[in-house]
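We modelled the chain as a single entity of 138 amino acids. Its sequence is:
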Amino acid sequence: MTYPEALQELVEEFQAIDDKRERLEMLFELADEVVELPQDQWDEDTRVRGCQSEAHVRIGIAEGRIQFLSSADARMVQGLMGILTIALDGLTPAQAVLIPPSFAEEMGLLNTLTPSRSNGFRNMYDKVMAELRQNKGD
């Protein structure tokens, strides 16, 4: 599958790293990519259910493009959000919903995370995609 350019580059960067520890370090660095959702805007609508940490995402659409806002109480989860920020920010909802969750497996990301973190990432992805499908017509 061909992904949007920024995500394709990220997939290739992760694939080039064999060491699990280095992948985790890169994941922590990706936390800096997040456009933060202020904590006073966290609520049940933004909460990612099934995530080990307190995690929140909000999808905005401006001029037909996604604005991905997110925040979490754990840096690793922020890094996972950074991946979704890189993958989705600036795309149209119609483009974004075509991105399958398999990119995380191709990256080698799921082998790097604990099962509960992998599950949390999938829950985050599913929440975002459900919201984007609702906004696709906007």
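As a brief sanity check on the tokenised model: Residues 5-135 form a domain with the Sufe protein. Chain: A fold (CATH 3.90.1010.10). The two ends are 26 Å apart (CA to CA).
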